[in-house]
Amino acid sequence: MFRKQCGALNVGFSTFRRMAFFELREDCKVDFTLRLPSRRRSKGQIMKTLFLAAVVATLSVQAPAQAAITLYNDQASFLAAVSNPGTDSFSDLVPRSGFAGPVNRSAGAHNYTVAAPGGFNPGSNLADVFLTTTNADSTIRFSGFGSDVYAVAGLFFGSNLDGHYQASPTITVTAIDSDGDVTAVLKNPNAGSFLGFVSTGGLSELTITVGRSGIWPSIDNFTLAGAPSNSVVPEPDIWAMMIVGFGLAGAMLRGAQRRRAFS
To answer: Are 156 and 183 contacting, i.e. CB atoms less than 8 angstroms apart?
Structure first.
């Protein structure tokens, strides 16, 4: 019997007379070990052993690791790391025309909900409309993401009472996924300060807060996206170990049949 833990998955496998087994390592890879039997086994027993080993190997390579979040401060790099991005530019909003929350909106094909204490009062930089709060020192909270959302991004900055860009010492942005949260602090952000989060698990929430009183948290071009691959794909070395292992087992079986034929 062996038992290893990879992320949240424990896999155990009892071998038949130490014939063969797959070992699920801590790094979510699979080791295949083939051991010669201590005495002659039947064809049915050998095939049963190999079948169970294959089942455990399949569970192993598909075992989800704990989610991890990667930060991006370059928009091009972020977009290269995700799939199916959609952006809410807030161009449908009217500057200085307040409304209550929470509000259901969409970024391309991805739906979301945004809320803030006291609601929102959109601002603008020239003709560009952005989302900001009614109250200063408030927190903007994005949630209600679909299960296909693995990435979130936007332009994060501060604004003033008149709804225009205002310098702020810091903007704090926190992304939450199934395993916890990651917080990034933008220092002296401007209206073009980009920040993106890409998780290996689904993202569930994003919050924005300011680092100085009298500043309104603001965001533009809110983006949601999926990941290029949402599942663990077996690496070439894993497949190589599996193929070699099954090949050796087959050779053993053929050798045993030939020995019986000449005995």
So the answer is: no
